[in-house]
UniProtKB/TrEMBL annotation:
Pfam families: Glyco_hydro_95_C (PF21307), Glyco_hydro_95_cat (PF22124). The lineage of its organism: Bacteria, Pseudomonadati, Bacteroidota, Cytophagia, Cytophagales. InterPro entries: 6-hairpin_glycosidase_sf, 6hp_glycosidase-like_sf, AFCA-like_C, GH95_cat. GO terms for biological process: carbohydrate metabolic process. Gene3D superfamilies: 1.50.10.10, putative glycoside hydrolase family protein from bacillus halodurans. Residues 662-749 form the Alpha fucosidase A-like C-terminal domain. It comes from the Bacteria. This is Uncharacterized protein. Residues 294-660 form the Glycosyl hydrolase family 95 catalytic domain. GO terms for molecular function: alpha-L-fucosidase activity.
Amino acid sequence: MKSIILISLQILLVFSAFGQIQRNRIGLQSEKIPVRWDEGLPLGNGLIGELIWQKEDKLRFSLDHSELWDMRPMQELHTPGFNYQWVKEQVLADNYAAVQKIGDKPYDREPAPSKIPGAALEFEVKDWGGVKQATLNIETAEATISWQNGVKMTSFVHAKQNIGYFRFENLNDLTLKLLAPKYEGSSGNTAGGPVAGDDLARLGYKQGEVTQSGQSYRYIQQGWGGFYYEVYVKWKKINPKTIEGSWAISAHYPNKPQPEAQKIVASAPSYSAAWQSHQNWWTNFWAKSSVSLPDPVLEKQYYLELYKFGSAARSNTPPISLQAVWTADNGRIPPWKGDFHHDLNTQLSYWPAYSANHLEEAMGYLNHLDQNREQYKKYTKWYFGSNGLNVPGVTTLLGEEMGGWIQYSLSPTVSAWLAQHYYLHWRYSMDKDFLKTRAYPWFKEVAQHLEEITYIDKNGYRQLPLSSSPEINDNKKSAWFLENTNYDLALMRFLFAKANELALELNLPTEAEHYSKILNQFQSYHLSDNKELNFSKDLPYNQSHRHFSHLMAIHPLGEIRWENGTKDQEIIQNSLKLLDKVGPAWWCGYSYAWEGNLKARAKDGEGAAAALTDFATAFCSTNSFHLNGDQTKSGKSNMTYRPFTLEGNFAYAAGIQEMLLQSYAGQIEVFPAIPQKWLQASFKDLRAEGAFLVSAQKTNGMVSSIEIKAEKGGKTKVKLPFKNHSIEFNKGVKVISQNTEFMELAFEKNGSIKIKNDAKK
């Protein structure tokens, strides 16, 4: 098969108050249909998804629903006496095999709990001749395939409704089948482990029945614990040469009524009628922000990432899991059970949402966390014996703990990292009600948990009983540390610092003072003699590793900042220099994406662009899916496997945004980390902390204009990239102070300002 070629499908001219930005909408196009499920053309809406590919001589739609889950409890995890304190006792007694038997091994051994696949549609196409073109238009979220005999297929998953559509033109008749996953009658290749995935037959289901009635199919599959799901597809002739159809999946849990798939299809509007509302949603999505880069590889990948985010995230659907709405269609349980990994994966998946101005889609993540608070509190009390709130590092759809490498799946600081997303939503939206009713209560309960489980050591420092650094030393006894690692230290320092900030914002001085007191009980970060961040006090960064856990204080937490001056700059520069020196032997694709963000925070545009280019060109499938390993086998990593997960894709998009706009340090800075050779670049309506929408343009190597709109009003500082400038005021803007480097501005709500470079060309 010829590789799918990333090309520009459409050029959209976006007009702004300060000029014209050319924005490339990038899609997928090939002269062949993809022949692997993980190279398929992806469509989705956060709840359901579709992958279009060719299996043998059939056109195949792999159908998925984000709520298809086997949620049986993980065996042995709740063995009486198993808890955080007992684990420490076994570590000290050199009896760690007993811990692994209960906490780690069942995750590898048992097939569930796990995400499960839906079904597939297969169409007979072998007599239609060769394929002329297979495309994915990400502007319209529609896939199109045309054949040599004139047949044309189009398909979309409706952006807002639980239904998918397909249309075949220039065709007299259509032969298709609805195929169920093989829950019985496996090939004999059973247990595959968490990466390869177990055979679906290991779940022990009785195979569901597919029934046909005229031009429709219905499939009902019973799962575990009273759960079942239904798939329904129906098609009909619209005219002698056009056939249209639609499909739906419905997930049914006890005591949670849901519309049945058959009824969804029966009441659905036609293809043409549904198209307009689908298009309205995507038009609005793309209008939120845009970027224009002189590097076609980076720009193409960026828009593909935003497209996938728009396909996988909604405020009213489950958050993005490892594969979101594109579960593996290979007869197996998906890699790492398709679960919610909170030791990195879910967090990275939402990094780009804030600056890209997609706060609404990101709310699905926070809604999920809030909906499962009682489950998290139950877990926190059981495992840690503490009040307050912590989240398991690996969970089911309902937030239940799954175990597996408990240093991370049962980490004591997971909720502190998740708290950052509450903080970011507050800072990027300035929604005072959200701060009061959701963000601050989360911080308060996480702080209670961490205060209760930590203790003051003989040196007066607050310590965790057991600390770790994902995923250093894997799941061995040596992966536990008896003094806070830089990873846990960064998260706890962040948590209490921001709890203090939020309490002051809400005029709660007593609570703020308490958090400040706790914060001051934590030690400083562990540094080498060369001012490099260590893993821990006694473990320097001395091994290539995929998870940059020791650098959390730089990014994403921003506790060590370039803007703080030479001391922090030295730590950042030396730590990243060592990261490059040790090398990427055991990096995944997401490591390169994360490195792009780190280099951007270090104001290293060349380094950021290089890391993100490596991600886009070596670690992605032909359809842009992140495949973890180096697909070029060119030495970018020793890992050359291809399990598909999404966090690397979205961390990449965040890296591009960090290159163009930074606001985490209390100031707005445009183009803080772009290569010198980028003489032309621009962006429109990227969102900054403080609920400011920022647009900027670079022309002939110089920043030519900056425009700032204040959604909620307030003050901000702008770093000035030019010496001579003129200002165009809209309503409600006042210059408080300015010098050659900064301008401080005060905005009323919806006030705006445009700053132009008046330097002589």
